[in-house]
Amino acid sequence: MQSKEFGTSMSISRRRFLSFTAKGTAAIGTGVAAVGGGLMYSQSASTAQHWLISASTDKSGNHYAAAYRLNGELVSRVKLPARGHDIIAHPFKSGHAIVFARRPGQYFIEVDFNHGEVVKQVSPQVGSHFYGHGIGNQQVLITTENNYQQGRGAIVVRDINTYQVLEQFDSGGIGPHQLAYMPDNKLIVIANGGILTHPDQPRKKLNLESMKPNLAYMELESGKVVDSFELDNHQLSIRHLDVSEKGKVVAGLQYQGAKSDLVPLAIAHHGEASLQYLSASEDIWRRMNHYTASVCIDNAANLVAISCPRADMLTYWSLNDNSFIAKERFSDGAGLAMSTDGKGIVATSGKGQILPIGQANNQASIFVDGIKFDNHLGYLTVS
Question: Known Pfam families for this protein (predicted)?
Fold first, then answer.
């Protein structure tokens, strides 16, 4: 499929984006108006508030976890001991979230954004560090971790109330990064990035010549890896992913090989015998600059968004057939999240920008002054 490129004008890009996705959904572009440079969502029967949550960094280099209203207004924030990475809504505490430290992480923190308070800070087990991601339900919190003493990835299950470790399983590879529940909630899917690290050399990648990334499926009850898939290029690190409501997994890749190599940077899997590369022109793969950040699926729109901050670009793909749809200029854009109010995907950037994707043609983005949003974005619904 030939590449389609958005123009530099935001209003033009919104209009063209809608034309690309019109066949997929009627939900995009409804219920939103631009007011005073911000966002104002139409009133609904629900009185719930919807907050964006993200790790962030200010101009002085201080790290925070923060919640923002959709017009860019700060709700509250807490200072973090080190740079954060992903953040998720607490499964049942309204206004609470859990933020995970960036690799090699030494904390995760439960935050009460209603009052701007740290509820609890948790350190990794001896000989381990966090990989920046986790998922939770009414009973447990599950984190990806590195058992660096053994050089193996771990999936650690904790009690959601006390955060005490209940169980620990081998992730099926090295460097487990993002993970997600499958629709049946009996399996989880794990992006084993394949990269060996150690906190004594915090950001150094220790095994690039021998790395073996894989996409693994684990049975939660037993901790057994029931299936695992590798790529034909062992230096394509599988990092971030999302799962559709029908169980299709889409993952973004980060290439660890030569800068001159031309490689695909996104895959999908939905029961096939092997991982499937998404379809795009060589020009698109080249522009993505060997790096993807967040992956987000909009089921209603049959759309996948993948952010490419090193390329200052967002990319859009068909959930149905894995084909490339369009790209959009978005400087240092990385965070992506599906809204909890049915309004579609929202993106954030290291420039402090909040961008609603594919909504009203005249929709304005917002800039939060003095803030760099980190690579991942979450949503809170607060009753």
Answer: DUF1513
For 285, the token pair is 């793969």
DSSP letter at 310?
G
What's the token pair of residue 9?
């004008």
What pTM was computed for the model?
0.89
Instruction: Judge whether 295 and 336 are in contact, CB under 8 Å.
Output: yes
At residue 346, does pLDDT exceed 70?
Answer: yes
Pairing of strands 74-79, 63-68: antiparallel
Report CA 351 to chain centroid distance, whole Å: 18
All residues at 6 or more sequence positions from 221 whose CB lies less than 8 Å from its CB, including other chains? 186
Domain edges within the chain: 10-382
CB 314 within 8 A of CB 347: yes
Using CA atoms, how far apart are residues 115 and 137, in angstroms rounded to an integer?
23
Interatomic CA distance for residues 55 and 324, integer angstroms: 29
What does the block give as tokens for 322?
A: 């894995």
Give the separation between CA 30 and CA 28, rounded to whole angstroms. 6
Helix (H) or strand (E) holding 16: helix 10-21
Run of H or E residues at 287: helix 282-287
Task: Give the span between the Cα atoms of 146 and 103, in whole angstroms.
Answer: 9
Q: Across residues 16-21, what is the average pLDDT?
A: 48
Is residue 39 pLDDT above 70, yes or no?
Answer: no
- Quote the CA–CA distance of 55 and 13 in Å, as a whole number: 28
Please identify which residue in the block is written with the tokens 């004594």. 200
> Phi, psi (5° rounding) for residue 287?
-65, -30
Q: Which amino acid is at 293?
A: A
Q: How far apart are CA 170 and CA 120, in angstroms?
A: 26
Report whether 359 contacts 343 (CB < 8 A).
Answer: yes
Q: Distance between CA atoms of 234 and 236, rounded to whole angstroms?
A: 6
What phi, psi does 22 have (nearest 5°)? Answer: -60, -35
Residue with tokens 């859990």, as numbered in its chain: 98
Q: What are phi and psi of 227, to 5 degrees?
A: -160, 150
**What is the token pair recorded at 198?**
């150690």
d(Cα 113, Cα 91) in Å, to the nearest integer? 14
